[in-house]
Amino acid sequence: MRPITRIVGPNATPLPFASPPIRLDEWADAPLGIQVAVNGVATYTVEHSFDEGPDSLVSPLPIAQMLWRTDLVPLGAVGGALPITFSMATAPIWMRLVVNTGVGQVRMIVTQYNVSEG
């Protein structure tokens, strides 16, 4: 198991503010476990991408140009203001946390199982 944490805030500017993305292990098993905590007043969105991203050897893509979606996360993780815990049956390649509004701190923990350790 490999938990990865991203924290945004407090007072992240300019809004919306995206955390550095998490690169998941494409050889590990799904599902993923995701937990989001909110301290203070803030709204957030959990996003995922299947793009290869900036570390691709063949066709690197800057993070700002990647396709970020919310199709795999529950409604409470899109524009959410309350803590949430959920799982994703499909593991994307990348995930990130975006704080949309507020001045609070938002923390996301992603747990991926059977990660190949080098």
Which key phrases capture this entry?
118 residues, 4-stranded antiparallel sheet, mainly beta, 47% strand, 5-stranded antiparallel sheet, 9 strands, Jelly Rolls
CATH topology: Jelly Rolls
By DSSP (H or I, 4+ residues per run), the number of helices equals: 0
- Largest sheet features: 5 strands, antiparallel
Per DSSP, what share of the residues sits in E-state strands of 2 or more residues? over 45%
| Envelope shape | globular
- Outline the low-pLDDT stretches: none
Portion in helices: under 10%
Level-2 CATH architecture:
Sandwich
How far apart are the first and last residues' alpha carbons, in Å? 14 Å
Please give the radius of gyration in angstroms: 14 Å
Element order, helices and strands? EEEEEEEEE
Whole-number count of domains:
1
Structural class: mainly beta
Overall pLDDT score:
91
CATH class: Mainly Beta
Concise summary:
With 118 residues, the protein is mainly β. The strands form two sheets. Strands 2, 3, 5, 6 and 8 form a five-stranded antiparallel sheet that branches.
